[in-house]
Structure formats: structure tokens, C-alpha cells
Amino acid sequence: MKHTKFTILIAAVLFFVTSASFAQSTSTQGTEFWVSFMSNGHKYHTEGPNGGNWILTQVLVSGKRDCEVTLTNPQTNWTETRQVHANSITTIDIDENIAYIDATSEQVLNKGLQITSTDTVSVFCTNIAHLSFDASYVLPIQSLADDYIIQTYDQSTYSSGPSYQTQNQTSAFLIVATEDNTIVDIKPSVNTMNGRPAGQEYHITMNKGQAYQVRSHKENSSRDLSGTRVTARDCKRIAVFNGNTLTAIPNNGSSYDHVFEQAMPVQSWGKRFVVSSSLEREKDIVKVISASDNNEIYKNGTLIATINAGQSHSFELTSGEASCFIEASGRAAVYLYNMSRGGNMIGDPSVVWI
After folding, report:
1. Is-above-0.85 flag for pTM?
2. Calpha distance 139→145 (Å, rounded)
3. Can you spell out the DSSP letters for 202-230?
């Protein structure tokens, strides 16, 4: 179930993430974070509480010691301060007008949210609508960098469902600027919703606290923004979130959801991964994306693919396998996609960065 992912995330709030690729060890904990919320296609569901058309975005904070957390939108001067008690989780609802980006694409908006704390904390974010729930860790600013390769799911394109479903089947990513005059170069892998052509780089300029969402087009089956390169000039740090506005997994599945995860910068990608299958599901989908050319991908010691920079390779991980070991000859990233319910499987789609 979707809440299984959230439980796992919260259980890991005090664990560190380190990488030899960084100049220094980097933690998921910190005192400054940046976040914004991607468009959730289930917001437009016509059923549920209040006739549908609602969204709930949240920030969750946990720490080892009592501290004070302040949330600020630098562009609008909105601010809120909350007390965080040691070894507990403080949940803060964020009004959608503050940091949620609706169905728009390719507009610079004042929707970035800065989170600062008087002591070290871990931060998570959730994006909830009727029949929809997904969550992500939020990286502290010292774990952010300037270079990202987007990873989304091979978008479903079901065309005979309700209008909210057919109109929101897009992959997407979201950029948040942490400094003024941040110039970001973007090279989309497929055509975007507002007509940016695949393979043609363009740039945008953002100030501190601004956010920019890109959604794929909806004209045909090629809607996967995976492999899109996002690079900030002058080594300025940006936060990037990626996923799908509304998709079934696999793309002909029976249930749809908004799925997302914060992207880790390429500098923090690795070469060796352990992936476990999900509880009460027959199988999951594992997707590996490469940061370099001629990258050999091995599963349990067997070569399964050779891919170039920005390319991906996917395979199913069954409950009978329980787990697998992935090794790459070059730097790579791995995502685990929970599949839509069907057969003996329960739950809706979700995604976890491995």
C-alpha cells in the first residue's frame, strides 16, 4: 500500500546517506531544505470529499532534539514557525497557494518553500488527493548540486477514461532555485506540454524561492521525460523533483496515481545497489538510468543491458526473487516502481529511489 512507503521513509529519518562521489560525506539531515509540490492529477477527481477537486500538501519534520522550524516562501514573504519535539514527527499542512504547482507547465512561479531549523532535522513531504498518496524525503541544501538527469516512468496513455485521467497522464519534473539569478539549462528528452522540442536545449532564469515545472506533451505514446538533462550554471545548487502527474504502472495497469521522488544530483549516483521486492505484491518494476556511455548493467552478476548516458533499462523483480544486487560499470541511478493493483496485488503505484 502507498502508506508502506511512507512508513519506510519515516523509519529511516535518522540514517545517513554517504557517497564517495561527493567531495565530502553528505547526510539526509540538515538545517536548511527546499521543496515545492508537483501537479497531482487526482486533484481533479470528481468524487470524494467536497465533490473532489482538493489537494493536501504537507511537510513532515523529525529530529533528535527539540528545535524550532521556520517555513518561508521568499518570493511572497509567507512564513510559519513550528516547534519540533525530540524523537517525534511534526506534520505541517501547506496551503496549496503557497507551494503547490497546479496543471501548468514551463512557467517560473513563486512557489518555492525554504525550511530552516535551529537544530539538525530530517524532512519529508507528501502530496495527497482523493485516492492518491505519495511521499519523498527532502534533501538538505548541502546534498543538492547543479547537475541532474531526470527519471520518470514510461507514461500511461489510456484515452477512454474520465477526463481528469486522460488530461493528466504526463511525466513531469520540478526545479526549485536556492539562489538569485540561477540560470538553468534544460534539454528535454521528449516534447514538452508547451511545445519545447525533444533534444533542443533551452534555459530559464530563476530567483531564490522560485519554482519551474515541466510536463511532457500529451499527443502520443512517447511521454517519458527520463534522460532530460537539467544543469544550473555557475555551480548553483537547485532542488529537483521528478515523477508522473498521473500514471498506471505498468502503463496498461488498472489503477492510476501521482508518483514522485526528489532527484539526487548526478554527483551522488553510484555503482552498486541492493533492491528488495515489496510486501504483498507479486512484482515490482526496477528502472536503471545511466550517467555515462557504454555503461554495463549487471543483475546478480549477469549482464542484462549496456546503456548510454541518459538511457534507461527496466526489468521486473518478482516476490519470489525477494531481492537482487545491481552493479554498473559506470555511475547510475536506480528506481523501484510499485505496480498498480491487479490479480493478487494490492495498493496503487508508487516510486522509491534506491
Report:
1. yes
2. 11
3. EEEEE-TT-EEEEEB--SSS----TT-EE
Q: Does pLDDT of 6 surpass 60?
A: no
- Residue 8 reports pLDDT greater than 70: no
What per-residue string of b and e applies to 51-69 under the rule 16 or more CB within 10 Å gives b? ebebbbbebbbbbeeebeb
Distance between CA atoms of 207 and 178, rounded to whole angstroms? 7
143-152, 279-288, 301-310, 318-327: segment of lowest average pLDDT: 279-288
DSSP string, 148-206: EE----------SS-HHHHTT--EEEEEEESSTTEEEEEE-SS-BTT-PPTT--EEEEE
Kindly tell me if the per-residue pLDDT of 27 is higher than 90: no
State yes or no: pLDDT of 230 exceeds 90: yes
What pairs with residue 132 in β-bridges?
129
Residue 348 one-letter amino acid: D
Q: What is the C-alpha to C-alpha distance for residues 285 and 302, in angstroms, rounded to an integer?
A: 18
- Maximum CA pair distance of the chain? 54
Tell me the mean pLDDT in the region 242-271: 92
Alpha carbons within 13 angstroms on the beta-carbon side of residue 308 total 0
Residue 271 CB partners (closer than 8 Å, separation 6+): 327, 328, 329, 330, 331, 332
Render 324-346 in DSSP notation, one character per residue. EEEEEEEEEEEEEEEPPPBTTB-
Kindly calculate the radius of gyration of the chain based on its CA atoms and give it in whole angstroms. 19
CA distance 168 to 127: 16
